[in-house]
């Protein structure tokens, strides 16, 4: 848990944020910190102990969600070095999987969609940049180094290193997320 928090912190430092600003004024960091602690408790091997702490974490998560507008359930899987740059309206499904070194912009939804065998949540690769107000939904996979442009609706899997744009999102080029991350 400490390693993941440090990795998230380093990502904020890369963008030039002062340590005091990160810790006391950056809502994205608060939400990630709360998630990291709650996820560690969720994965704990001490059931009686963890159930009590999980209850506390549920209320803590709700408080963080209210003041930041960012909902990250403790059961989601988020890799190290995540960066949430702006306040609010970020919803991540409890079963979502997000890789390492990803950027999540404001207004993003990573959620469930589909019917029957196609119903599910996304699995997002490493170093993926998700633009403002993008929606990624359904049982899909997003390859490493992708860019999901602002205001896009992605409901189909995409391979690594592409940029998608639109509603529904389509591949517009083979530029990777290098330079965005």
From TrEMBL:
Gene3D superfamilies (UniProt xref): Hexapeptide repeat proteins
| Gene Ontology BP terms | cysteine biosynthetic process from serine
Q: A GO molecular function for this record? A: serine O-acetyltransferase activity
Q: InterPro entries attached here?
A: Hexapep, LbH_SAT, Ser_O-AcTrfase, Trimer_LpxA-like_sf
Q: Which residues cross the membrane?
A: 15-33
Question: Which CDD domains does the entry link to?
Answer: LbH_SAT
UniProt key word Membrane: yes
Q: What's the catalysed reaction?
A: L-serine + acetyl-CoA = O-acetyl-L-serine + CoA
Q: Does the keyword NADP apply?
A: no
E.C. designation(s)? 2.3.1.30
The superkingdom of the source organism is Bacteria
Which keywords does this Swiss-Prot/TrEMBL entry list?
Acyltransferase, Membrane, Transferase, Transmembrane, Transmembrane helix
**Pfam families per the record?**
Hexapep
| GO-annotated cellular components | cytoplasm
PANTHER family, A to Z: SERINE ACETYLTRANSFERASE (PTHR42811)
Family to which this protein belongs: Belongs to the transferase hexapeptide repeat family.
Q: What is this protein called?
A: Serine acetyltransferase
């Amino acid at each position: 848990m400490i390693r993941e928090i440090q990795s998230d912190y380093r990502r904020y430092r890369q963008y030039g944020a002062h340590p005091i600003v990160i810790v006391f004024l950056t809502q994205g960091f608060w939400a990630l910190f709360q998630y990291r602690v709650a996820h560690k408790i969720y994965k704990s091997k001490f059931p009686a102990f963890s159930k009590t702490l999980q209850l506390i974490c549920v209320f803590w998560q709700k408080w963080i969600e209210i003041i930041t507008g960012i909902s990250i359930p403790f059961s989601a899987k988020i890799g190290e070095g995540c960066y949430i740059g702006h306040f609010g309206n970020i919803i991540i499904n409890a079963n979502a999987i997000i890789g390492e070194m990803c950027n999540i912009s404001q207004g993003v939804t990573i959620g469930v969609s589909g019917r029957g065998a196609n119903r599910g949540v996304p699995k997002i690769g490493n170093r993926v940049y998700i633009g403002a107000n993008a929606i990624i939904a359904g049982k899909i996979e997003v390859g490493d180094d992708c860019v999901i442009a602002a205001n896009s609706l992605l409901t189909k899997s995409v391979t690594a290193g592409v940029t998608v744009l639109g509603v529904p999102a389509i591949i517009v080029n083979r530029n990777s997320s290098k330079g965005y991350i």
